[in-house]
Recover the amino acids of this structure.
């Protein structure tokens, strides 16, 4: 079958807008993390900051899902990007005026987290609608490279933090979100999920849509297994991630710049992996086996690399990035292809809600343990739990998951 072109007008606009906004977000996000660590000097308060940002993601995705299955996802995407631009402009003026304090920043993080959580559901539900038939795997290979590309800005953020200061970075971030939103207003797509009835969208209809979304996930055992595993995976990944920067900062032989280079190798691996996915299609019948292999091996790498010399750390992170983007592509392209368009908002909202709850649990647990125990053994234990989950959840549920993963898209 001859595939249609991937780079349509709509797909190109959304991709360019996403790249621009992610570049700004990567810079300010990393610098803000450093500011919080310097200001508090506590891994627990640093973890609380991360938790507060993610807290709305427990509630808002599931609330937003039914609405995004009835109304325009395109309008939601560009409206939220304009709101983000305004908020980062507010933070710029606050920092410029010397009004920074921990409590105020926690409050702003709740607002930003709310916007980001709804945006993610809207974006994830809109994205498949802009992909031409037969190009799911290739499109998500592009998507998988956007975040690593933006993460290449982290060394720049580190340099700016030390030499220029934090404040100008938020002005840059506000500009990038405004530019991205302007791009996204030009998207023209027929949104078949939009309700055509003139009857107002009442609370009772919302409740019915919400219940249908929960019922759908319950009856789809493959999606349920995938979601359950990724709750654990996000708990482990975010828990470990919370401790990595504090660990590097605490070691005189390492430091922040070494952290940026080691993590940069993971980014490079993701870029290479995404490029491979763009050019090469993995054997359809082997996708499930490949994903399971990646889940286990990546956990082994994350458990062990902090015990290695720096050069070996960099190599292991490159390999981790290379293989993790493979499992990401298999999972997201397969599930978004499998879920009907009229249910995507509710599925994506529920998935984001549950996995974020796991992520927050991991951040709190790791932050508390990191203040009283050596960091590396904590990370080892977390990743051992992830391996057990891959076997007990994904492998045991292979009869339900394999038909979703092993599809030629």
């Amino acid at each position: 079958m001859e595939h249609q072109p991937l780079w349509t007008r709509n797909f190109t606009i959304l991709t360019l807008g996403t790249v621009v906004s992610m570049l700004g977000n990567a810079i300010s996000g990393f610098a803000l993390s450093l500011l919080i660590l310097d200001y508090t000097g506590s891994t627990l308060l640093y973890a609380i900051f991360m938790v507060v940002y993610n807290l709305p993601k427990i509630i808002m995705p599931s609330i937003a899902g039914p609405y995004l299955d009835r109304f325009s996802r395109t309008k939601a995407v560009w409206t939220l990007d304009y709101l983000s631009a305004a908020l980062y402009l507010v933070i710029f003026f606050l920092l410029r005026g010397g009004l920074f304090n921990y409590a105020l920043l926690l409050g702003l993080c709740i607002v930003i987290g709310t916007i980001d959580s709804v945006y993610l559901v809207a974006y994830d539900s809109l994205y498949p609608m802009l992909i031409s038939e037969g190009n799911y795997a290739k499109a998500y290979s592009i998507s998988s490279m956007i975040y690593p590309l933006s993460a290449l800005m982290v060394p720049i953020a580190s340099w700016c933090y030390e030499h220029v200061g934090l404040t100008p970075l938020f002005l840059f971030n506000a500009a990038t979100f405004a530019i991205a939103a302007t791009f996204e207003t030009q998207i023209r797509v027929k949104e078949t999920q939009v309700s055509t009835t003139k009857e107002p969208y009442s609370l009772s209809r919302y409740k019915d849509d919400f219940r249908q979304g929960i019922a759908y996930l319950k009856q789809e055992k493959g999606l349920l297994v995938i979601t359950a595993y990724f709750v654990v995976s996000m708990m482990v990944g975010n828990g470990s991630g919370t401790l990595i920067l504090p660990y590097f900062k605490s070691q005189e032989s390492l430091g922040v710049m070494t952290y940026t280079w080691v993590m940069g190798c993971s980014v490079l691996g993701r870029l290479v992996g995404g490029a491979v996915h763009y050019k090469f299609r993995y054997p359809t019948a082997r996708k499930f086996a490949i994903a399971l292999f990646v889940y286990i091996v990546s956990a082994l790498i994350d458990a062990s690399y902090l015990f290695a010399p720096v050069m070996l750390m960099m190599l292991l992170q490159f390999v981790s990035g290379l293989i993790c983007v493979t499992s990401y592509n298999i999972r997201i392209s397969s599930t978004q292809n499998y879920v009907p368009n009229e249910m995507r908002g509710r599925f994506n909202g529920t998935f984001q809600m549950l996995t974020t709850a796991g992520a927050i649990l991991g951040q709190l647990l790791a932050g508390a343990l990191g203040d009283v125990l050596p960091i590396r053994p904590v990370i080892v234990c977390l990743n051992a739990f992830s391996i057990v989950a891959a076997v007990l959840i994904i492998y045991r549920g292979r009869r339900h998951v394999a038909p979703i993963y092993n599809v030629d898209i």
